[in-house]
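Hi Y.,

Following your request, here is the sequence exactly as I used it, all 253 residues.
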Amino acid sequence: MGGNNADSSYPAYYIYQNIMIEANFINSSYESRVKRLLFLGSTCIYPKFSKQPISEEELLTGRLEPTNEPYALAKITGIKMCEAYNAQHNTDFRSIMPTNLYGINDNFHPKNSHVVPALIQRFHQAKLNKERKVVVWGTGTPMREFLYIDDMAKASLFVLKLDKETYDSNMSEMVSHVNIGTGVEVSISELANIVKRIVGFEGDLVFDASKPDGSPRKLVDVSIMQNMGWTYTVELEDGIAKTYEWYLESLMS
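Below is the corresponding structure, written out as tokens. Let me know if you'd prefer a different format.
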């Protein structure tokens, strides 16, 4: 979730809704003596012009991407709440920050889906309608990182089950969260061409440079996860192929 939204009340509502849920959930976990809590955030928490690849220490070092600011602020609040409870009450509340996710059961809505499902849906419809071209927003030059949802699930369980001594030894006083990603980036142009090839669209690919690009680059440093013993397994093309196969099956059901 993130980006522009037609509803002008969206930013205020998102901050209110999510911070209230986080506050109640984290405090209730403490009061109920939950042994271990996993808080999921997003790499949108980092400043727009973070040093690349983005390490966990980049948090709160600069201005956020304006279109993601409400979302990012809500997630940062959750991270810091977990951090504060751990420091004050010796809880074991862990925070993970995944990169851009995609995969089966994603949202393929033509107006509010994320980039991978949006491209799959757009190219598929263009193929069916025998259109001559597909227009993609932006210049195509921004670099992005994508993680298949099955790898995200495995990473979540890995962090949740990791012994406290190992987890804590990879954290620091002001860095209590960990990046989840592949450490591999691709341009939006390259991504669009991969989806085009997998879907089998034979028309032209056109980029609309009048539309915003967002952050120029957003690659995360995944060295902490690698040091703890986890790495991704699904390559981008394989993941997109699996996602498109599922998408076709969902249209038949």
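The chain has one domain: 10-252.

Thanks again,
Q.
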